[in-house]
From TrEMBL:
Listed SUPFAM superfamilies: P-loop containing nucleoside triphosphate hydrolases (SSF52540)
Pfam families assigned to the protein according to its UniProt record, in alphabetical order: AAA_31
Domain AAA, first and last residues per copy: 1-180
Record-linked CDD domains: ParAB_family
Source organism superkingdom: Bacteria
Record protein name field: AAA family ATPase
Length: 267
């Protein structure tokens, strides 16, 4: 199982949109077995996959709190054959606080330990993170092979990037030498000078940026959230859906250059 953290310290940059569409495309077009972990107490990825339940305690918080967790108890099926999910709700707030003060066993490796039992069952684990650095995010980074950082190019886009990069370096040194910063994904891209200069600036700062950006496609992406469907299913021909498809192709080529990415002829 290859584990990918979708992460940023900023909210509203399309972390959840990227996580659910990447999971959906890997599962459908590429026929991969995917486990999604909702690592945000807001539960937006859980809502998108129709499994959000504010009262259900069998969620991601258990990965932090239960020492001998039977992981099968917290994994839920979704409407999609190849996608399972570990959901989130407000329990994650308390779980984070309790983990932070519980030094009786290692705090950052709890996700990793809990997931070992299903590592052979899935090809990919996609973790949708909250815009934060807390115990559950450190756990996500400790169990991840790759980090993808969605970015909207605006006046504030680059705030916090250095802190995030430093955090990733720290986790790599202390807990997870196989953690790779795979790249920044420009979301809500508009072909204008600000966007194009922003991408240049990022590259000059030493950040790798995916060649494929995701176009701003307001109406369709908003509608898809109400329809509780990934945009790639809701409107597979709209700009954002087509871009996510190419992004996932690029992602697969990056992590396994020999991967045979099917060409379905869509432009
Ligand atoms: N490519 C896009 N074009 C237009 N709107 C988008 C696009 N991607 C995401 N959005 C919208 O931006 C908002 C934030 O996206 P979301 O994935 O929830 O961000 P995050 O998880 O980083 O907070 C949502 O309302 C979503 O519908
Ligand atoms: Mg989100």
């Amino acid at each position: 199982m290859q584990t990918i953290s979708i992460i940023s310290l900023k909210g509203g940059v399309a972390k959840t949109t990227t996580a659910i569409n990447t999971a959906y495309l890997l599962a459908t077009i590429h026929n991969k077995k995917v486990l999604v972990i909702d690592n945000d107490k807001q539960g937006n990825a859980s809502k998108a996959f129709n499994v959000y339940d504010p009262e259900d305690s069998y969620n991601v918080a258990k990965l932090l709190l239960e020492r001998n967790l039977d992981i099968g108890q917290v994994i839920k099926p979704t409407d999609y054959k190849n996608i399972d999910i570990i959901s989130a709700n407000m329990d994650l707030l308390d779980a984070n606080l309790r983990t932070t003060i519980d030094t009786s066993r290692q705090q950052q490796t709890r996700f990793k330990k809990a997931l070992t039992a299903v590592a052979d069952k899935y090809d990919f684990c996609i973790i949708d993170n909250a815009p934060d650095i807390n115990m559950s995010i450190m756990n996500a980074l400790t169990t991840s092979n790759y980090v993808i950082v969605p970015i909207i190019i605006d006046q504030y886009s680059f705030d916090g990037l250095d802190i995030l990069k430093e955090q990733i370096e720290n986790i790599r040194e202390d807990f997870n030498p196989s953690l790779n910063f795979l790249g920044c994904l420009i979301t809500q891209y508009q072909n204008n000078e600000v966007n194009n200069q922003g991408i240049e600036y990022l590259r000059n700062m030493g950040f790798s940026v995916f060649k494929q950006s995701v176009r701003k496609t307001v109406a369709k992406v908003n509608e898809s959230t109400f329809a509780k469907m990934p945009i790639s299913k809701y409107s597979s021909r709209c700009g954002a859906a087509q871009d996510y498809k190419k992004f996932v192709d690029e992602f697969l080529k990056l992590i396994s250059p020999s991967e045979n990415v099917p060409n379905l002829g869509t432009k």
